[in-house]
Design goal:
The complex is a heterodimer.
Chain A lengths: L3 E4 L2 E4 L5 E7 L5 E8 L3 E10 L2 E4 L7 E2 L9 E3 L8 E8 L7 E2 L3 E5 L1
Parallel strand pairs in A: 2-11
Antiparallel strand pairs in A: 1-3, 3-8, 4-5, 4-9, 5-6, 7-8, 9-10, 9-11
Chain B lengths: L2 E4 L4 E4 L4 E3 L1 E4 L5 E7 L5 E7 L5 E4 L2 E4 L9 E3 L8 E8 L6 E3 L3 E6 L1
The chains are: A mainly beta, B mainly beta.
């Protein structure tokens, strides 16, 4: 089954404790992206990647890192999480230059 | 920059009522326009799209027409069902960075 898999589904952590949210897709898509969803703000892009070893900042990249060492994986790293990073995070992928995004089920992160 | 404006929710309707969710956009160039739907606890799914002026996208009884003169892409359905309860996001794509710009989302609640 074609899908985008994120883990974990829920995560509660404390300020400053490094964490990684994993994302994997099995559709051989070139493009992958991370969004955060906040009430009243919709979805905002954090980082995106056009292909392996190619990443770029989205609209709200501060406090986040990403890497794209393999085509299928695109982890989101929070080196020192802060409470304002409490949010619902979505990973998405698509074939290159195709507007249809395939979304994961989301990761609800709470930073205390 | 590019932006999408949606009507605020929640929108509460009775089953079989007519639905309209308004969406207007601001973009440079000629964007493609989309409606995505997010069911409770899930990621977003593409509902329909239109790639040029006067195109009509349709799926599952939902329709939206790309109106360049009014920069709008309103979502309509003639008879809603309880199973249509979800959050609906309007979005646009202009190609640069393969990025979708989302509206803030409109929650729809359909009651018996």
């Amino acid at each position: 089954e074609a899908q985008v898999t994120q883990n974990p589904r829920y995560l509660i952590t404390v300020t400053g404790k490094k964490l990684t949210v994993t994302c994997s897709q099995n559709m051989n898509h070139e493009y992958m992206s991370w969004y955060r969803q906040d009430p009243g703000l919709g979805l905002r892009q954090i980082y995106y990647s056009m292909n392996v070893e190619v990443t770029d900042k989205g609209d709200v990249p501060e406090g986040y890192k990403v890497s794209r060492k393999e085509k299928r994986n695109f982890p989101l790293i929070l080196e020192s999480p802060s409470p304002n990073q409490t949010s619902l995070y979505f990973c998405a992928s698509s074939p290159y230059r195709n507007e249809k995004l395939f979304f994961g089920s989301g990761t609800q992160l709470s930073v205390l | 920059g590019d932006s999408v404006t949606q009507m605020e929710g929640p929108v509460t309707l009775s089953e079989e009522a007519f639905l309209t969710i308004n969406c207007t956009y601001t973009a440079t160039g000629y964007p493609s326009l989309f409606w995505y739907v997010q069911y409770p606890g899930e990621g977003l799914q593409l509902l329909l799209k239109a790639t040029k002026a006067d195109d009509k996208g349709s799926n599952k009884g939902f329709e939206a027409t790309y109106r360049k003169e009014t920069t709008s892409f309103h979502l309509e359905k003639g008879s809603v069902q309880v199973s249509d309860s979800a959050v609906y996001f309007c979005a646009l794509f202009t190609g640069g960075g393969n990025k979708l710009t989302f509206g803030t989302g409109t929650q729809l609640k359909v009651e018996l």
